[in-house]
Amino acid sequence: QVQLVESGGGLVQAGDSLRLSCAASGRTFRNYNMGWFRQAPGKEREFLTAISSTGEGTYYADSVKGRFTISRDNANNTLFLQMNTLKPDDTAVYYCAAHIFAFKAPPRAQYEYHYWGQGTQVTVSS
């Protein structure tokens, strides 16, 4: 089992950048595909991006492609989400999640993820 803790959220202005981190406990982080999701008020949780266990494969939702970048540091059990050119529509709670079947490509469906963090709030003012 792995525990995930997100950090780095906050209040920023439109056009600013923010870097989220997701710290994972345990020694199995390097064996998991990882993903970032977000949930805005009154909306369903949506897929943003995912990365393979080795970091070689990355996948993005069209809504964030070109603005957000996912990366990971397996030596330090940490997942990152670099968010640039933030918009008010990016306001949401951001979650990291772990998918244990590394032999598969990282999924986009949230139901396929096995472990979740508690989320970190990102608020973008106009």
Given the structure, what is the number of helices? 0
- Main beta sheet strand tally, sense and closure: 7 strands, mixed
Strand residues, percent: over 45%
Query: Which structural class should the secondary elements be placed in?
Result: mainly beta
Number of strands: 11
**Ends: how far apart?**
40 Å
Query: How would you state the average pLDDT, rounded?
Result: 96
Describe this structure in words.
The structure is a single chain. With 126 residues, the protein is mainly beta. The protein contains no helices and 11 strands. It has strands at 4-7, 10-13, 18-24, 33-39, 46-51, 58-60, 68-73, 78-83, 92-99, 115-116, 120-125. The strands form 2 sheets. Strands 2, 4, 5, 6, 9, 10 and 11 form a 7-stranded mixed beta sheet that branches. The radius of gyration is 13 Å and the shape is globular. The termini are far apart. The mean pLDDT is 96.
Question: What's the topology here?
Answer:
Elements: E1 4-7, E2 10-13, E3 18-24, E4 33-39, E5 46-51, E6 58-60, E7 68-73, E8 78-83, E9 92-99, E10 115-116, E11 120-125
Parallel strand pairs: 2-11
Antiparallel strand pairs: 1-3, 3-8, 4-5, 4-9, 5-6, 7-8, 9-10, 9-11
Q: Can you describe this structure in just a few lines?
A:
With 126 residues, the chain is an all-beta fold. The chain is 0% helix and 47% strand.
Which features would summarize this protein structure in a list?
126 residues; mainly beta; seven-stranded mixed sheet; four-stranded antiparallel sheet; globular
